[in-house]
C-alpha cells in the first residue's frame, strides 16, 4: 500500500516537472519520463555508505555532507516545479545547512564550507543549463545524476588536493584516486576550452591544447603532489607481477574484440539490434570480473582511465576531429538507439558507470585485505545488473516476451528472466562458495577465509539496493 502511494506521488510529480520543463522550452529525451527519483539515488547511496561503513575517510564523510545538501536541493527544486506556492528563498535552505555542517562537523574551513554551500545551491540551475545545452539527450533524472556527480567530483578533488599537499598518499587506492582526479580534471579542462573557444576545434590548436594540458598541467602537478613520477608509478603498478601483466593482456584482447565487432557492424552498414548491443554487456562482465577478484585497486585505476578516454573520444566525435571523428561517428550511427536522440552519445559512459559505480562509490574496499570474501558481491552489483539482469531481460524479452508493462516497450517475461537469472547467479555463488568462483580467475589459493565470509554483513544490503536502482535507471530511462 505504501509503495503504491509513493509510486503514484512520484508519477504525479514527474508529470508536473515535465510540464514545467516544457513551459521553459526545455527539450528532454523523447519517449522517457522525467525520472525524478534518479535525482535522489546518488546522494542517498553516498550518505548510506558513509554511515554504514566504519572505515570511510574524512573526505568521504565530507562528500556525504555535500550529498545531503544536493538531496535537499533536489527536493526543493521539485517542490518548486510542482507548486507555485514554493518560495524562491527555500532554495537557500539546503545550501545553508550544507555550509553549517561542513564548517562545524567536517571542519574543512570557512572557504571550502562556503564553496560547498554554493555548490549545493547551484545544482538545480546547473541541471537546467545542462538540459538546454544537450537537447533530447537527457531526462531530468539523468541530468541530475550527471550534475551531482560533477559537483561531488570537483568538490572532493579540490579538498583532496589541498590535503595531499601536506600528506603524500601511501596506499594504492589513495594514490590512484589522486591520479584519476587530476587526470579527469585535465580532460574536463580540454572539454570546457573546446566548448567555450571554437578556435580549438581545428586539429592543430586542439592537439596543441591537449599536449599542453597533459604535459604542462597533469603530469607536473601530479609529480609535485606525489613527489614522484606518476607515469613511473603506473608502470610499476602494471609490472609488479606476472598475473597483472596477463590481466592487462587479457583486457587488450577483449578491447580488440570490441573494436573488431564495431568495425564489422560499420562495414555491414546495418543498425545493431538490441541483442547485439547486449553482447557488449557480456563483454563488460568478462573484463571486470577478473579485475574485481584479482586486482581491485588496479581495476579502479583502469576504470577511471577508461572514463577519461571515453569522454575524450566522445569529444572527438562531437567536434568531428580528424583522424578519429568520422570513424567514431560511423560507429555511433550503427549502434545508436532511441536513447541516443540527442547530440551526445551517453550509452558507452552509462555502461562503464554501471559496471564501475560500486567501485567508485566505495574505493576504500580495495584497500582491505579481505575485500574479496566480504565485499565482492556489493562490488559485483553493477555486473549482476547489466551483465546478467539487463542482458537476460533483453534477450528473453526479444525471444519470448509478449506481455508489456503499461506505458513501456519492456515485457514482463523479460523482467522475470532478469530477476531469475540474477538470483540464480547469487544463489550459485552462495551454494558453491566464493572459493570455487575465485579459482576460475585466480592462480593463487584463495584461502578458507573467503568461504566463511560468504554471507556479507547485512549493512551492505542497502548499498547493493541503491547501487542497483541507480544502474537500472541509468540504463532504462
UniProtKB/TrEMBL annotation:
One of its GO terms (molecular function) is dolichol kinase activity. Its main location: endoplasmic reticulum. It comes from the Eukaryota. The chain crosses the membrane at residues 34-53, 59-79, 86-104, 110-133, 145-166, 178-197, 204-225, 245-264, 299-320, 341-362, 382-401, 413-434. It is found in: Endoplasmic reticulum membrane. One of its GO terms (cellular component) is endoplasmic reticulum membrane. It is a multi-pass membrane protein. Keywords: Endoplasmic reticulum, Kinase, Membrane, Transferase, Transmembrane, Transmembrane helix. It is an enzyme of class 2 (transferase). Its EC number is 2.7.1.108. GO terms for biological process: dolichyl monophosphate biosynthetic process. Belongs to the polyprenol kinase family. This is dolichol kinase. It comes from Cryptotermes secundus.
